[in-house]
UniProtKB/TrEMBL annotation:
Protein's organism: Nyssa sinensis
Protein name, per record: DUF547 domain-containing protein
A family per Pfam: DUF547
Lineage summary: Eukaryota, Viridiplantae, Streptophyta, Embryophyta, Tracheophyta
Domain DUF547: 82-216
InterPro entries noted in UniProt: DUF547 (IPR006869)
Length: 295
């Protein structure tokens, strides 16, 4: 990705400081953290990035950090993912994906139009091991976990899934088998996306499980003890894992407060498919960052 004119400054606001004006706004904002910390868990301490604006004067204050960042990015050219083990590839590509997306926003700003924002991300790329690797390539061909996009049916016509050809050396960059937990780790700067964290090879599966638990715990809602509301990311995860509705409810039980656990248990053996409502993905711009990333 070209860095010839990076101009980015981001505004941060903690989600726990926001004014919650509508009692039903969580239907549009599944990360609206309020009330008991039994629900929100670590998400109530996250730092929220609401937008990224271009401001060359403020950028001077972090010039040394940007220089260090560019130096780290340039080192990717000397990395050979083909020599990595499965866990190493998982952690490496999750981190590269999330950094590349954020880097694109820092360089180009955040287009107000969601479709333009997605088009920008499709073009963003790094040189990894001497090869050009784009965001779409990481999602489709390397990790096999394509994230929700606005106008996805239309994009499938103009931006078909990236596939490596038979003799393409980049085929060896891909992970060995699909990993449904990636739905809770990859972030494209959308409001409904999971929080951004740094993943490590030695603990990547424990970290992915923790990310899943925190995401579900934060977004789960029960409407009048009759209907379960969950974001579409959980639906994608359940389908990829092959979870039946009863199995999904059983998994969720472990992540929610005791006060609601009995209500979920009552529905587990009933007509649960009619009891689950999938909240639409919110594509408005927003980042949640774990506090260790902002130190």
């Amino acid at each position: 990705m070209s860095e010839s004119s990076p101009r980015g400054q981001y505004y941060m606001c903690s989600p726990e400081c926001q004014n919650k004006s509508s009692s039903h706004s969580w239907l549009d904002n599944p990360f609206q953290v309020e009330g008991s910390k039994d629900f929100s868990g670590p998400y109530c301490t996250m730092v929220e990035v609401q937008w990224i604006c271009r401001d060359s004067q403020r950028l001077r204050g972090v010039k040394h950090m940007l220089q260090k960042f560019r130096s780290l990015v340039s080192q990717l050219e000397g990395v050979d993912p083909r020599k990595m083990k499965h866990e190493e590839k998982l952690a490496f590509w999750i981190n590269v994906h999330n950094v590349l997306v954020m880097h694109a926003f820092l360089v180009y700003g955040t287009p107000q139009n969601n479709m333009k924002r997605i088009s920008l991300l499709l073009k963003a790329a790094y040189n990894v091991g001497g090869f050009t690797i784009s965001v779409d390539m990481i999602q489709s061909s390397i990790l096999g976990c394509r994230l929700p996009r606005p106008g996805q049916w239309l994009q499938s016509l103009f931006f078909p899934k990236t596939r490596f050809k038979a003799r393409d050396a980049r085929k060896a960059f891909a992970i060995e088998q699909p990993e449904p937990l990636l739905h809770f780790a990859l972030c494209s700067g959308n409001h409904s996306d999971p929080a951004v964290r740094v993943y490590t090879p030695k603990r990547v599966f424990q970290e992915l499980e923790a990310a899943k638990e925190e995401y579900i715990r934060t977004t789960f809602r029960m409407h009048k003890e009759q209907k379960i509301l969950l974001p579409k990311i959980v639906d994608s995860y359940a389908k990829e894992l092959g979870l039946c509705p009863a199995g999904l409810a059983e998994m969720i039980e472990h992540f929610i407060p005791n006060s609601l656990r009995k209500s979920v248990q009552k529905h587990r053996h009933g007509k649960l498919l009619k009891k689950i409502e999938w909240m639409p993905h919110n594509f408005n711009f927003r980042y949640l960052l774990s506090k260790e990333l902002t130190k």
